[in-house]
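Thread: Newbie trying to understand structure tokens

Hi all, I'm a second-year student working on a class project, and my supervisor (Dr. K.) asked me to get a predicted structure for one chain before our next meeting. I've only ever worked with sequences, so writing a 3D structure as a token string is new to me. If someone could post the tokens and maybe explain what I'm looking at, I'd be very grateful. Here's the chain:
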Amino acid sequence: MSRRKHDPSRSLAFLFLLLCILLPHVALSQRLEACHACVPTSVRNQAAIGFDLGQSYGTSVAYLDNGTTINLAKVAGSPKYMALTERLMRTPPLESGLRRPFWRRMTRLAMLTLGLPANREIAVLAKMVADLKAETKAALGAPFGMVVVTAPWQDVWRDDGTLDSDLYDALVLAGVKPWTFDLGGGPVYMGELNTVLGASGRWLCEPYGCGDTDEDDTYQGVFFISFTNRSLYTSFQRARCFYKHSWQSLSAIDAEYGLDEMAKAATPAQFWDAVRARLASRVAEHTKHRRHGHYTITVAVEIVVVAGEAADNPDFLGVVRDVVRDIPRVHRICFDGEVGCEQGTAVKADVELVVLDDPAFAAARGSALLSRLVLEGRWYCSSAECCAESQYLKVGGPWDKTHVEL
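---
Reply by user tm_fold:
Sure, no problem. This is what the structure looks like when written as tokens:
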């Protein structure tokens, strides 16, 4: 009797099914069963998709009904794409009157209707989105619907709505249906800092859709560091519900501090010293903005969150720990005139360091989580319990895929 040839694809399919059944229903930590029980099976069976258009690459993640996340695709950004993200970060927002005249909106709409980009920036973004979409579709083996997109927060896009957003046009041209904050206005993407906070289990707030019951105002500042092979992205922001925009941040993308640049340095130590100096200068810059009351980031840094494809490099993490330990001292020096500063009580003595597991896909995991909530939110049960305070929303729930260092 002949032996049947083993088909590895069947084993993988069985393993995938087994994981989906046996893994804890960690997605329920984002929404109470009082809400989730009314979601129909047809919606539960859909995979929620999140895209991350990072500073040097793009990733996609699927978030299943039981809370399982699946890394789908990772696409390298072209030189044009990386140059664009860095240049946009240095570009100040336009006055609303320059960005939103009627004729400009109509021109964009006409170009979009014809399937053409209205400018070169849209063309570059659309190419990146199309590549990520193709890889994602191949990984899923099927088409997909609405996508929540995250990207480095760009001040130049701060006032963009769907009628005048380069990113929105790029998504539509690439055949991707984006989720937007509100119809006709509001951003069409999430800042990476927000989605990484969501992926780390921070600021999940009340169950999605509870509106004003969300505790969206805190006095904790967050320093986000995304370290990739090609660049270093840093951003400061005040923490709030991860699916709500903070609107303002202090951000920078530096191509000269990507991990690949170490090969150009005289020694590895010289490169890491330069990275340490850059991170320290960013903390000092944030402190200067605090001192003069700029934006909404006038709160002290209490949390440092680290992600990006190269973020698990041991030497890099050593540099980050050095910078984190020095943050309270920098704040005290720059705020020497404040009451209590002489005794070292003006800021917290310790700053929490959060390093995400699987850091290359962290931001996409957060956007996929929001995609899950948006997908099922309108089906939630209508009950008072649905928006009651939930212990499931606390940090450290069963789905929290981070490790914390002090």
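A couple of things are worth pointing out once you decode it. The radius of gyration is 22 Å. The longest strand covers residues 69-76. Feel free to ask follow-ups in this thread.
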